[in-house]
Amino acid sequence: MASPVSSPSDQKYAKDTDMTIPPRWRPALAAALAFATCAGAGAQLLPPVPDVGGTIGSVGQSARDTLERTGNAADPLRATVDELAAARETRLETLVRANRDRLEMTDLGPAVRGQVIAIEPDPAALAAAEQAGFTRIAEERIEGLDIRSVTLAVPRGWSVDRALSRLRRLAPSGAFTANSLHEQSGGAAVVDVTATLAQGGGGAAIGIIDGGVAAHPSLRSSVQQRGFAAGAPRPSGHGTAIASLIAGQGPVRGAAPGSALLIADVYGSDPAGGNALALARALGWMVAQRVPVVAVSLVGRANPLVERAVREARARGTWVIAAVGNDGRAAPPAYPASYAGVIAVTGVDGRGRVLIEAGRALHLDYAAPGADMAAAGPRGNLVPVRGTSFAVPLVAGRLAQHVRAPNPVAALDREAVQRGGRGLGRGIICGNCRTPVSHGSRR
């Protein structure tokens, strides 16, 4: 099992207060911090979303969204490796700076402030932790995965990195991790919801772990949503686009038109959305609902809890499809795409070329369209999309069509074209699934 490398970072984190945002990103940050907050709640069906004339979100979510659109290769064809790396660093630092009461920067990126997670801890390890000043916040057995986790508050004044280092000395055989964050692997918009949200139930054929999904003319099948973050489920542009690329009919051509969907919103209006515990709970819910294929267009660093959740899900027959990210090949390997058993996906443009901003994983399975196409927008419109995020639902949709086959991956392999192409894994899936970008498409 991959474990984060731990080293004290108190000095690094103190220096963070003196960090300056490069001038090129200041307009994006200023715009991001100008947005307001809205929320929703409960497990719900798709709500109608009025056109409120602009994107509205929490400060943390807006900072994340705006900096993704600008820093994540706003003009990716001219982006360089250095620019992508700088944009990623700035984006993450800005998210933490805007939400210091909830987040802190660790050696492996942003995480929930003041918390660590013990995975399947034994009584001796917990006793040693409590004697050292850690206190229990919560304890649970994650639904569907049978994983026991205990969330601990770190001693006052300690960083998460320092806390993990101490715990690993106290209990060398234990498994401890930060509650680290994962980003959506593509631009996202959060929209205001003023309509009453209907409660719903029922099963689903294909799962999505992302932001919430808005009502759209292309989504005509059963869609059930459940929130795993404050203010969730909450419609987002990213989640809506992903859903349409799987199940879209009519305005958007999905890879599995008309398929029922199960949506786990791990973001909502929460600055700490996309954390490891939320992902594990969401994946457990999918497994409990017997969802055979789950699309995860999220990217983070290696986290033992998420890795364990993926392993348990795969052992129970659930396929996980994940993106390699959009921070360029110089970025660290993307997770969950890099975990064993996960199908890792990159994106290609309309000419079959790997996107210049595409990241990397420790293995690569397939490519699929990720640019020069449109998807469903959060206000019933069509929007142009670009990023490895949008390749994932196409592969997930096609794999879902083969889950009853003796070997679903072998059946998917037979669909692949340009096999053996450089940077394409085992080939391009669903290359003819693009919905053309028309003059009517808008962001």
Describe the structure.
By secondary structure, the chain is an alpha/beta fold. The chain is 26% helix and 19% strand. It contains 11 helices and 17 strands. The chain has helices at residues 10-15, 26-32, 59-71, 81-98, 123-131, 160-170, 237-247, 276-288, 304-315, 392-400, 408-415; strands at residues 44-45, 103-106, 109-119, 135-142, 147-153, 175-180, 183-184, 206-210, 223-227, 261-265, 293-296, 298-299, 319-323, 343-348, 366-369, 373-376, 382-385. The strands form 4 sheets. Strands 1-9-10-8-11-13-14-15 form an 8-stranded mixed sheet, sandwiched between helices. Strands 2, 3, 4, 5 and 6 form a 5-stranded antiparallel sheet that branches. A two-stranded antiparallel sheet has the order 7-12. The radius of gyration is 20 Å and the shape is globular.
